[in-house]
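Protein: DUF6350 family protein
Species: Nocardia halotolerans
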Amino acid sequence: MSSRNALVRRTSGSRGNGETITSPPSGHEPGWWPLSPERSRTLLLVAARPTISALTVTVLIVLAVMLTAGTALTSAPGAVAATWLAAHQIPLTVGGTTLGLLPLVPTALLVWFAARECARAVPEHPTPVELTWLTGAVLAGPLLMTAVCLAVTGDAAGVTALEPPGVFSAFSWVFILYLGAAAGGICSRAWSALCALVPVRIPEWAVLGARAARRTVLRLLGCAALAATVSFFVHLSRVGDTYRQAHDVIDVLGMTLLSLLYLPNVVIAAAGLLSGAPVQFGAGSIGLFGVSAGEVPAVPALIPVPMGPAAAWWPVLLLVPLAVGVLGGIELGRTSDDRPGAPWATLTCAGLSTLTFLSLAILGSGQLGAGGWTGIDLPVLVVLLVTWLGFGGFVGMVFARRFLARTAPAEEYDDYDYDDYDEDDFFDDHDHDHDDHDDHDDAVDEDEDDYYDDDPDHHDHSGDADHDYHDPAVELDAELVEDLDDDVEVSIAAPGSTAAPAEDIVDVEVVEPDLPEGDRGTGR
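Structure follows.
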């Protein structure tokens, strides 16, 4: 029987029954210059939705407060503008008194909402142009609303005691906050793409140090929240004196709500105290090594603040940041493959953690009216945190290398929102294609077994190590089927052929020339 060379080309875009498999997109998407209608709509939502939502909530809160207090609604525009500015940590001056220590809960919610909207709009394969457009959209809405609020406060200054804040200060705070929101949203979805845009290679110890810094900050904040809660219950007897200034239920609810909004400020101050840095209240200060006289505002949020002389056991609390640093060093020592770079990862963790707490301390500090500046002593905070976290991290790293077994580093994946990108169809088709291939192989193996069962002269050489037996190989998924011997004829139905069955079927006909004519087997 004459031999035949079969040239078979099977691609992921075609099947034997004529169906087409869609491949996932590859490469970068088209740039956003010029903007398409769909991209323009996405950017408009990113710019408008957080701003409009925040403004709506602000208006409702201001109207509810004014109607409850019986205040005339003529001052509502100025109150809405002042509330918007205060929510973005912009200091306000009312009647000659400056209020710079503002609650962090509204600020955190606004930044989180903007970062969430930004993360949803990040494309799968972003380019620098796309990221620039997206960052500009995140900044555009809040900056525009801030300009409107500054104009409103300027107009209301003639009828109210509210003084308009500085323009540079107002725009600087809004720009910094929403730039951080844009960075957080983009990094949560396109961290790999951002690393690819960096012209230099980021070392592994820097990435490990950054991940450890995030865990270190969360642990120290958790310890500070626990310490503040314990102190609150210890000083629970002050609750009555704190609410004594309230005249009715409305005042009690207002003081309680205000204290809840200031809870992040209290936790940050507690973290500073645990590190050893004193917290200043105007002329006075409170620290682990001493308490100086000062006036503390009588609000429920400050009930956990310790009063009186410092106890002898307070310095023991310095073990908390030291233990947090040791735990971070142990994790780095157990997961780092780069032994020379592990100390640098420890220093990176300590440095980034300190920088994060410094930013939080700046946000949680400010001028508190006639009471003066209130907040953590920033220079002392930086020195002590670098010391405790750096030294503790190095000790933990050495301990892990000497006494603990190494573990594989845990992969940290970002939370993606896959609502806009679905690959189920592609992978279902791909799996179906593999199932067809497996069924075909089973059919060929079964036919070959039937042939060998009918052949009385066939001997099984599978147990003979000295005998080399090679089956005629037929490559099904390769680009080219090699030349076959005259004894084997392969007939493959062309993909998409209407003459072929619904599934890919390979007809294999094996003929042994030395067999009798009646014993010739055909496997299909």
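Remarks: Residues 203-421 form one domain.
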